[in-house]
Amino acid sequence: MSKVYFIKNSESDYKKLGKDALDILKTVVEETGHSFEKEVPIKVHFGEKGNKTFIPAECYDEIINYLKEEDINTSYIESNVLYRGSRTTTKAHIETAKSHGFTQIPIIIADGDIGTEYDEIEINKEYIKKCKIGKRYGDFKQFIVMSHFKGHNSAGFGGSLKQLAMGFAARSGKLEQHSGISPVVDADKCISCGICIEKCDFDAIEMIDTAVIDEDKCIGCAGCIAVCPEGAIRNTWGGANFLEKISEYAYGASKNKDIIYITFVHNITKDCDCIGRSMEPITENIGILAGKDPVSLDAACLDLVQKSSGEKLFEKGRVSLEHAEKIGLGSMEYELIEIE
Predict the structure, then answer these.
(1) Cβ neighbours for 198, distance < 8 A, ≥ 6 positions apart
(2) In terms of DSSP bridges, do strands 205-208 and 210-213 run parallel, antiparallel, or are they unpaired?
(3) Which residues contact 298 (CB under 8 A, 6 or more apart)?
(4) Choosing a second label site near 45 at 20 to 30 A (CA), which of 214, 221, 268, 272?
């Protein structure tokens, strides 16, 4: 059974929420005997352009200042998204982050300019043998993974597991979780410009009236999705065992890493912060939770949201928790310790 620390906060005061984040971080550090390395990145989600309910930059100020006072170098770290949006390439991703106020510290986009730089982390689990994790994540031993608990159409909910699985994965790793197959070309959109062929390092694309991807040669890096000027190349989003693959990628992302997890259970929307439009919260703010076990932390967040709403919100995601426990990532049983 893992310990999960909890500070109630139903207010919409982000400065207060940032202070609570620091208080709960200090609690985890003290209770677990955690000792920070000299360089500790903060894993966050910057929010898609047009989204209004992502956790704002000011909520991280107190922790950033604390790390600086302790002479710990820090930065924001993320990876590029799989779909075409405002965070598909490093340049656009950083521009979006800065426009959303994330300017306090440097930003690292871990998987390179178009999401094709990664290390393979061997895990040999049921669905995934090797995880494709953004290369720059390999430069660090420790992270503070800060998540926003909210709904997600495919995953049920987004929390610590998804922040590890999708957030640490390179674009090819995201593709593997969602579909496990090569991207597809929409012939009606393709203008036969050849940019995808020039960018493919594996000679997996040829032009036969329109671009055609050879599935035998394609390694699923999904770089072609990023460079296509017409959005004619896409993944299918229809892969089997997506919920279990999230757990296995989370296992790979956290393998041999020392991580403190902090989750904001605020602005709880039906869909993810990747949705580029304004959304309304579907239940009240609850507070902030933290610990060193991402499975128990997500389980506690899910239980609190369901108790608060009186509904079985996001229940689909419990499959990921069960599989995560099965493969040894953490425990669904937890002791909830409320901090006054």
Answers:
(1) none
(2) antiparallel
(3) 149, 157, 159, 160, 161, 263, 317, 320, 321
(4) 221
**CB-side neighbour CA atoms (13 Å) of 14:** 10
Instruction: Enumerate domains of the chain plus CATH numbers.
Output: 2-177+239-338 (3.40.50.11440), 182-234 (3.30.70.20)
Closest to 125 (Cα-Cα) out of 244, 248, 255: 248
Cα-to-chain-centroid distance, residue 64: 20
Query: DSSP per residue over 81-105, as a string?
Result: -SSSSTTSSHHHHHHHHHHTT--SS
Residue listed under structure tokens 């043998």? 129
Long-range contacts, 307-311 (Cβ 8 Å, 24+): 308/283, 308/284, 309/282, 309/283
With a cut of 80, say whether residue 84 has pLDDT above it.
Answer: no
- The mean predicted confidence, pLDDT, of the chain is 94
In the Cβ-directed half-sphere of 339, how many Cα atoms lie within 13 Å?
A: 21
Q: Of 165, 119, 164, which is closest to residue 143 (Cα–Cα)? A: 164
What's the predicted TM-score (pTM) here? 0.86
By the 8 A CB rule, do 147 and 159 touch? Answer: yes
Check residue 291 and give its pLDDT.
98
Q: How far apart are CA 61 and CA 283, in angstroms?
A: 26
